Amino acid sequence: MNHVWPQWIEVDLGTAATVAHLVPRLPTGWEARTQTIAVQDGATGATLAAAAAAGRTFDPGS
Whole-prediction pTM value? Predict the structure, then answer.
């Protein structure tokens, strides 16, 4: 990634699916931090809607 915020990724699951949880991982050497993660869902990129957003603490040491 280019170290410019915000960052985003798009994942096409190929078919409708229920996603129970996401597990983001910090790169080695990053300090603990709180980040806001937002998840959107939709049938196409043109129809995305907010599904969830929350501040989470990430600590690579745990």
Answer: 0.56
Cβ atoms of 32 and 59 closer than 8 Å: yes
Domains in the chain: boundaries: 34-62
Give the closest residue to 59 by CA, choosing from 36, 28, 32.
Answer: 32
Q: Which long-range contacts (CB under 8 A, 24 or more apart) does 23-31 make?
A: 24/58, 25/60, 26/58, 26/60, 27/60, 28/60, 29/60, 30/58, 30/60, 31/60
pLDDT in tens, 29-60: 888 888 888 888 887 767 778 887 778 888 87
- Cα–Cα distance measured from residue 35 to residue 55, given in angstroms and rounded to the nearest whole number: 5
